Amino acid sequence: MQGELQPHLHVSPSKAARSRGGTGTMRHRLGTLGQQATLFAVSSAVFLGALIGAVPANAQSTDVQPSERSFMVSLRQANSWIVPVSKEAPARTTNAAISNAGKDIFEGHSRLDVDLLKAAGELGVVLPNDVSSENQALINEMAERTGDNHDRAYATIVRQAQGSLLVMATQTRATTQNTTIRTLAHQAVQMLVRTMAPLENTGLVDPSALELVATKAQVNAVHILGQKIEPSDRELLVLLTQHSLWQKPASRESSDRARDAKVRKVASQLAAEHTQLVSAVTEAASQIGVNLPSEPTTEQKSWANAISSSSGDELDRMFANLSRAADGSLIIQVAQARATTKSAPVRNAAQTGLTLLLKHMLLLEGTGLVKSNSLLMTDAPAIVGPKPNTSPAPQPDDSPTSIGFLTGIAVLVVAGAGTLWLVRAVGHHGEHRR
User: Fold this and answer.
1) Is residue 297 left, alpha or beta, with left meaning phi > 0 and alpha meaning psi from -120 to 50?
2) Cα angle at 228 between 173 and 282, to 5 degrees?
3) pLDDT tens sequence across 36-60
4) How far is CA 349 from CA 139, 245, 354, 408, in A?
5) Other Cβ atoms closer than 10 A to 332
6) Among 14, 29, 84, 335, which residue's beta carbon has the most beta carbons within 10 A?
7) Cα separation of 317 and 311, whole Å?
8) Are 49 and 407 in contact (CB under 8 A)?
9) pTM for the model
């Protein structure tokens, strides 16, 4: 393979006879080739360096933030006792629902722990290998329980732990710029949403234990537009309704007017699936007697207007970034409500909302247009007012991605020009030597 990459150089006997400096010329040319290769390698490295750190959010940094490290450590610690306790659950119960829930939770957390260890290895994050004394005591205590005493304790403490993990995983999923951690958090949320419901459906979870999850969730309460959100059941249904009232028509319009075919497809899917969300929220509201709004908020109207007043590539970017920012902000509140509510109708609505928002975030990120500063509405791009009917010349994009890309292009052009000049100068010098 190495021989195939080496240039095949040949000097004819006649040329060697005409020039006493044939060997010297060959060495000079090989030296020049080395200079060209070095210059191109350096210029390419500078170009790639200009691009790194200035790419969309779906291909962002590898740095691990303290909150992300905390999430990984907390997940590892929870798995250290949930996995063995769930493995033993089927053997310690005669309740088929607890047995099935235990099997699902054991398999889910076991697979997640494998993914967690793999991600930690890739990122250089050190995770605890030993079970803490507190968690070991919990394992020992559960091993002594039998029958209904075991079942109620298992359902309550595992569900409580999963609720805390759900809030942390969702917040990490919504905010991280690290693609490895984003994937891990996405898998964690999916697994938790899937395994929490069967455990709750056993009817053995102590509702009062969910209040502790709410206290923990408030420690990391996200600030949305300057307000600390602690959604109640009614507030959750109102927030989900208002979200659909602006994003569904905005998605429908974008599915028709977006320039990028991928954006049109994603927008069409979002518009269709908001019908499912509206149905789930409306059913929950009718069951608990909540009056739902008929219009989005003034701010949400401004987001929809910003998309409507845009066109072409700008519309694509505006739709992707505003929608992803709104989804990322809302999903954290939905996760808190899903973990803490004692209302079955609201829990079902939150379950639907969490599932769809998680899916929509992934679809929007898949367009490649979502920037890292658009993950939450607090950091969303500034919304411009309606444009006049005239078509102004495209304005330069001063985003980090564009600046880095253009800088890299400029460096590469200059380096290429320098290489060309060097080649010509060497060739000209060689002609004079002949």
Assistant:
1) beta
2) 75
3) 433 333 333 333 333 333 345 554 4
4) 34, 16, 9, 48
5) 25
6) 335
7) 10
8) no
9) 0.72
